[in-house]
Amino acid sequence: MERTCLAVILAAGDSTRMKSSMSKVLHPVAGRPLIAHVMEAIARTDIHAAALVVGRDAEAVTKAARRDGMRLNAYVQQERKGTGHAVLAAREAIEAGYDDILVAYGDVPLITDAPLRAARAGLAAGNDIVVIGFHTANPTGYGRLLVKDGELLAIREEKDATDAERAVTWCNSGLMAINGAKALDLLSRITNDNAKGEYYLTDLVEIARAQGGRVTAVDAPEAELSGCNNRAELAVIETLWQQRRRHALMLSGVTMIAPETVFLAYDTVIGQDAVIEPNVVFGPGAVIEGGAVIHAFSHVEGARVSAGASVGPFARLRPGADLAAGAKVGNFVEVKNAAIGVGAKVSHLTYIGDATVGADSNIGAGTVTCNYDGINKHHTSIGEGSFIGSNSSLVAPVSIGAGAYVASGSVITSDVPADALALGRARQEIKPERARAIRERALALKAAKQAKP
Ligand code: UD1
Ligand code: MG
Predict the structure, then answer these.
(1) Which region holds residue 104: left if phi is over 0, alpha if psi is between -120 and 50, else beta?
(2) Among 34, 195, 210, 249, which is 20 to 30 Å from 329 by CA?
(3) pLDDT digits over 279-309, tens only?
(4) Quick check: bond before 417 cis, omega within 30?
(5) How many whole angstroms separate alpha carbon 192 and alpha carbon 302?
(6) What is the model's pLDDT at position 201?
């Protein structure tokens, strides 16, 4: 029979060390809140229900934690009395009866399902408590796993530890699996007799042992278990997350010339044989198909770049930008909510917003779709195979027919039929010798001024 599992995720802490106006679990890593990362790993662990313990910013934290297809109930921990007390805020959920209780902390966002599964396997093997630990050269701040003769005796919090205990480098990740049948009994035995006066979940190790229970620890990589208590740790976690995801993308066939300068969002999708040049930043919602090239210093968010398309250098794709196969968006071009057709070129210094650009069109340097009248946004439609001369303003709503030409420097305010030429600029005049006359007059004026005493 499959074992049932309740995940209890703790996210009620005051986030004091974060020094923030919002709960730390709402701070983003790779563009989404810490808590959402934790929930993704939880979701991959085949749990049956989740109990989220919230305090500060309860509503926003619950919203950020929700995932499609996951049964999740939020429980408010009224007062912050420590991690042991926090788990008991979800008493009602635990009482419903599960084989496994899996506790995770909302501030450990790099976890994957592998150690969570290993911890559950430890329960299935007959343990009452399975702690997930990690080895680190920088154990400061973490609870230390105290082991003797291969047995886990206790977890000692930094503030309660002796110097000798502080020298231990095997640490508590905050992830723990508990025998569901014994969980409430064990949890109710936790006291607050320690340096912080808090109910420590970590005391369960000693409590379970005193009750004759079996306790063990499993090991997981440090890179997955770093906790986030302050902004410096938040930056470290971001770095670790980015390294991990870049590595996975490169192994899947993406070329990155200077991977350490590329920043990905949690949901960035990049296909095989795409090339990402240095200093490219992805915001959420970017999909880069195979064989596309994102040149240096580009910013891409909420955008799709199809196979063989090229972007940048120094381009900005904003939400709704959709480049078809072989399209080109060049330097200092911004595209927002606009479809650029197959093989179309927008090569330089252009803004294309709320628009469609037909296949094989050429948009000259300095073209601007004037999409905003100060109150409403309007659409510009540019037909296939058209040519927009440099430095033109297309005042939306407006439509340029297929195969039309717009003369350079035009301000286009009414629709241009297919295959027509539109000129929306003053006619050029030539005044022979006029420049010489102006220059001579100016020189004479200057000479007259200098002659005055
Ligand atoms: C905790 C562990 C420590 C471990 C470390 C791993 C305890 C006593 N200590 O320390 O052994 O090495 O995590 O990162 O458990 N929370 C509540 N309610 C509370 C207190 C905390 O919901 O009353 C939540 C916090 O929002 C956070 C999590 O529990 O998500 C952990 O709390 P935190 O204060 O960060 O514990 P650490 O000091 O990091
Ligand atoms: Mg913490």
Answers:
(1) beta
(2) 249
(3) 999 999 999 999 999 999 999 999 999 999 9
(4) no
(5) 48
(6) 97
Its pTM stands at 0.92
Tell me which amino acid residue 184 is: L
User: 143 CB less than 6 Å from ligand 1?
Assistant: yes
The DSSP code sequence of 252-280 is TT-EESSGGG-B--TT-EE-TT-EE-SS-
Catalogue all structural domains in the chain, each as residue range(s) with its CATH number: 5-225 (3.90.550.10), 231-422 (2.160.10.10)
Q: What is the distance in A from the centroid of ligand 1 to the CA of 418?
A: 66
* Cβ atoms of 110 and 223 closer than 8 Å: yes
Q: How far is CA 289 from CA 87, 123, 214, in A?
A: 44, 43, 51
Task: Compute CA distances 238 → 30, 31, 65, 70, 383, whole Å.
Answer: 7, 10, 19, 26, 43
- Structure confidence at residue 14 (pLDDT): 87
At CB < 8 A and 24+ separation, what contacts does 271-274 make? 271/307
CA of 259 to the centre of ligand 2 (A): 29
CA proximity to 24, closest of 230, 277, 164, 196: 230
Q: How far, in Å, CA of 290 to CA of 217, rounded? A: 43
What one-letter code names the amino acid at 111? I
Read off the pLDDT of residues 29-52 as tens digits, 9 standing for 90 and up: 999 999 999 999 999 999 999 999
Residue 348 among the catalytic residues:
yes
